[in-house]
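BUG: 3D viewer hangs when loading the predicted structure for this chain

Environment: internal workstation, default settings.
Expected: structure renders.
Actual: progress bar stalls at 90%.

Input used:
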Amino acid sequence: MSSADQGRSSERVVVVGGSISGLRAAEALRKAAYAGEVLVIGAEPQMPYNRPPLSKQALTGDLDLESLLLRVPKAAADVSWRLGARVTTADLTARTVTLDTGEQIGWEGLVVASGLAPRRLPLAGPVGGLYTLRSLADAEVLRSAMVPGARMVVIGAGFIGCEVAAAARGLGVEVEVVAPEAVPIERPLGHLLGAALQARHEQHGVRFHLGVVPVELRGTDRVTSVLLSDGSELPCELIMEAVGAAPVTGWLGGNGLDLSDGLRCDGLLRVEGRPEVVACGDLARFPNALFDDVPRRVEHWTMATDTARRAGRSLGLHLTGADDPDPTFAPVPSFWSDQYDLRMQSFGAPALGADDVRVLEGELHQTLEQDVAVGYHRDGRLVGVVLVGMGDRHRYFHDEIAALLPG
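Structure tokens produced before the viewer hung:
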């Protein structure tokens, strides 16, 4: 098909983003009986793969990176893929997207699944020895650099930073963690659990520098040390920047959309009154009926799948003219984190209840040596649970959060 033919075609849904969200949205379109072409455009050269292990087993060598590739389900077997291609602009009025090659592609439906890109620190200094972690390629490069005896500074004490620190220690890397918070993972988990997690890391030899930020990278071609805001200097050969990620939405500019924090959607993932445009994954900002009507982004792996299935369904029903028998979308956000031999799992929105944290079951040991369930409450209602261990209680607490939806 020529570029001109593609530009004229209308019986097509374009999915921008070749991640798990793009795959699941394409699958949902077919399950909603959409019969037109479905074209997924992905910036990475790989087919969709599982990202959570990138900061865990993939770094320690316990997992073959190729094994992360996801199986394409039968329902999506006829979906077309354009990999290693980047969408640079979109015209929602003309219903086209333009690639970095200049090629223009028309559509009758658009799925925004372009995900996130790692934030980078605006620090002066060398770039050699600096790493981020978002893709398979990132994991491969970082893993090759994490050799025994290497000195690594992890900037950021969120989940990715802590998981990378744990993986690095398991490989014999010396690790220092720098972050402005008082304790690791403070915003989503609160001070109590964050302090216990810090103690667990310190047992494994991780050194924390909290309440400070990096101000300068030193070295010539490669980094040799990091200067902190308290005047201290940390020698290192590796720096892992784990300071969050930003929604990839620049290609949507000029269409009058709310891109202030991801992409604003309604409760069924439709974009601002445009039923022919939906969004899913980490960049979708939508209200979850489980909690309230405030649109929020949720960067959890399960939400990538849940939002994609709902977005694909919403778009498919619109394009086929079918009624929606279940117009309520109230997914239970969940995530897990493996650090050393510790498995943490969360359900709901703990950050919404960080001011009222209670131990629900077990005992909160100073270094998380015992299984425990910690509950997060807002206005007296349980809105989030974090489990340390307690594998046999996962379903119970998941259902507790799901029951928040008014009957």
